[in-house]
Amino acid sequence: MAKTPEDFIALRDKYKPENINLIFLFESPLHDGGFFYDHKSLKNDVVFKPMMKLIDFKYNFLNEQIKLQGLKKFKESGYFAVDSTYQPVNTFTNEGVKNNLILKNCDNLIKDLRSISADKKQTPIIIVRANLFKLFNTKLKKEGFNVINESIIVPFMANNKEDKFHRKILEIFMCRVIVANPLLSSMYLPYGTPHEHGGKLKKTRAIIIGTDPSNYDDKGKTLIMSHAFDLQNPKTRYWDEIHNNIKYLGLDKTSVYMQYLVRNYMKKATGENSYWYEFAEIWKSMLKDDLDKFDPERKLPVLALSEFVVTALLNDPEKHNIPSAKYYEKNIIIEPSENYLERVIIPCFKGSLIYANYPSYVKYIKQFLPEPAEEPAGKKKGLT
Hints:
The chain has two domains: 5-180, Uracil-DNA Glycosylase, subunit E, CATH 3.40.470; 193-368, Uracil-DNA Glycosylase, subunit E (3-Layer(aba) Sandwich). Helices cover 34% and strands 9% of the residues. It is built from 13 helices and ten strands. The protein has helices at 5-13, 48-54, 64-76, 95-104, 106-115, 130-142, 162-179, 182-185, 239-246, 276-294, 307-313, 324-329, 359-365, and strands at 22-26, 79-83, 124-127, 146-147, 188-189, 206-210, 256-260, 265-266, 302-304, 345-347. It has a four-stranded parallel beta sheet with strand order 2-1-3-4.
């Protein structure tokens, strides 16, 4: 027999913490019976494993007893998961129809959150899924709830999106650290974080790291980008100035992974931001983790687009306290043992230091790039 909304809520409330530290707002239980708080729901529950990873609950295989233990630890952590509606809506392929059904339950959702004093206690709420964020971010804030997404869209963890889910949750936590610091919060802009640009590891030959996504139009307004360096925009103004250098290494958009060291937007450009290195200190551990997941053998070199990036990642900045041009003139790179990422770091500074003017440096650093991946025989030109 299909469960009613009351059934789902009864199952959920068995694991409601006495003091709730954090609320995750999900869409709905799944139509096929998958539900996070149902310990008998094993095969169809796509939420349990990613949520257990958040609280470091490890297990080799899932059964009812393991799920019970995980739910108890989730409760002990002070975490609580709430659905926007307890009428399953995941089978609706028409987004508009589904969103209308969700909004019809808005009053019940607000009552539900108030019943656990989420508004009075200012309990942090993280909204999961892009559609829910659009529907409820502003609405819940107006009702007095403490949504902490900071414009960061957290994807649902189905369809192999577990890593992206965890990354966005961690980015939210990083932003919370920044907001809690009066000095850093004075420079911080709550405009979310761009996604990395990257394809498959086997096609990638280098990692490119910039300072942060801060950028402004002629009137000083921040331009929000969906991906690093606005590379999803065919009219991006950033790619040409990067490609002017890396083209001499035989690299293009398809052969690089691109990200920023600092992922949040700022009120000032890097060179005018006296707190930039403090921001970098907060974010650099996440950069290292992401790069190690993408390239666990650390074969890919890092091309640093700014002296700020190099300085922030050096173990001993004074050792490399040299003029920028000297890297190019003396064929200098930063060894893995000398930097936080434990990778080869190669200066690729934007501006006047163009690789075209330093052919010997180009020849030298090419040795650190892996060879291009060969196309399968059937895909080579002239073959079918």
